[in-house]
Design a protein that fits this description.
The complex is a heterodimer. Chain A is globular. In chain A, strand 2 (about 15-20) and strand 3 (about 25-30) form a beta hairpin. The model of chain A has no long low-confidence stretch (mean pLDDT about 90). Chain A has a single domain (about 5-245), classed as Alpha-Beta Barrel (TIM Barrel), CATH 3.20.20. By secondary structure, chain A is of the alpha/beta class. In chain A, helix 2 packs parallel to helix 3 and helix 8 crosses helix 10 (about 235-245). Helix content of chain A is about 40%, strand content about 25%. Chain A has 10 helices and 12 strands. Chain B has one domain: 3-Layer(aba) Sandwich (Rossmann fold), CATH 3.40.50.880. Chain B has helices at about 15-25, 50-60, 65-75, 85, 185-195, and strands spanning about 5, 30, 45, 80, 90, 105-110, 120-125, 135-145, 145, 155-160, 165-170, 175. In chain B, the strands form 2 sheets. A 9-stranded mixed β-sheet of chain B has the order 2-1-3-4-12-11-10-7-8. In chain B, strands 5-6-9 form a 3-stranded mixed β-sheet. In chain B, strand 10 (about 155-160) and strand 11 (about 165-170) form a beta hairpin. The longest helix of chain B has 13 residues, at about 185-195. The radius of gyration of chain B is 15 Å and the shape is globular. The mean pLDDT of chain B is about 90. The chains are: A alpha/beta, B alpha/beta. The interface between A and B is large, with 36 and 37 residues.
Chain lengths: ~250, ~200
Amino acid sequence: MLAPRLIPCLDIKDGRVVKGVRFQNLRDAGDPVYQASIYQDQGADEIVILDISATPEGRGHAVETTSKVRQVLSIPLTVGGGVREVDDVAMLLEAGADKVAVNTAAVERPELLSELAAQFGSQCTVVAVDAAERARVGWEVVVNGGRTRTGLDVEGWVDSAVALGAGEILLTSWDRDGTRSGYDLDLIAAVTSAVSVPVIASGGADSSRHLSEALRHGASAVLIASILHDGETTVATLKRELLTTGQEVRP
Amino acid sequence: MSTEVVVVPTGTANTASVLAAFRRLGANPRLAGPSDDLRRIDRLVLPGVGAFAPAMEQIDAHAWRDALVTRIDEGRPTLAICLGMHLLCAKSEENPETDGLGVVPATVTRFPVGVSVPQLGWNQVEPGPDCRFLEPGWAYFANSYRLDSVPDGWKGARTSHGGSFFSAIERDGVLGCQFHPELSGTWGACLLDRWLDNTGRKA
């Protein structure tokens, strides 16, 4: 049986780890290589690096960061943020990423997902979806760090993304990101019942109880950031807490 | 002198991860070049990410097929990872028209309907009692196809995902892993180290 994955996420800006609330008010949270190796030692099952640099110069650091992190990491590494073209993905894979996440570019040009799946395989192709609650019912895909609402229905979009070749979904609740108020469980349930590929739940984790809820609602993996960066808990502690509640994890 | 490890570029493989893993073990890994005689290389890695047919096309484009088949039949230290393990087989349902290396007379099949595909994540590896390199533990998988039978002469480890499949096989110095040892943490690093030593725990 596959064990659910606990995945620390490093948001990177200009080569440094940062953390904010709803992608705003960014604070410096350290060196990516150091942070990634600490989380690996704590028992992380995978590391996600999302580059949120606003400029092309800043994004240039992503390839360099990937390459440096790869040297110390013996667990899978997923890299995303600012990926526009097949060539961007090729560069990140060559630098040492195992999977690459695409977000805005896939919404603007969905065929990108088919091109990536054909060239690198679905197991390399992750679609990152930022979901914002609608005023009445359901969720809408937002892009450009939440600044642009697309009008796209989240369930419809993930369904097409998988049909095009995405092998995994990194699902972020834009409303919960950095708030520590728990994952959006209805969102997780809606997306995991719409697709059969693994879904990584993201946005809102504050405790092992939140992780366990997300897994019970169908997530295959949980992304964690704020609580780790602030040093309030460790991956090892979270795993121990999950084990005591009967939730199997990789020891 | 650190041990030289030569990695066959099969196209879109995650060679950076494989090279980094061997460097961390103190080995001296490099990519194979046109002047290499793959049959005579001491330690050879056949990595693999991507699809069966394009990877075999790469191998044939470099006229590497015969050298690979011979060295594997001779039991020389060869590590085949993920798609690389599929390439050892005769056929794969992924691209039924393409012939693999055929040193493992078996067909690679897709996971059954109803289980999550691709299998992405950590799963448990349970080796048979007579395995030399393989030990029980958690390994990282990223695959949609797998080997569900093991021919005579090969020893195997099993893993469960929609039923039991063979997550690794070994014979003499040859080790095929469906999982990614280079991404399987300390357990994976120890497995790579045993293969590098070519001693195994029961040698």
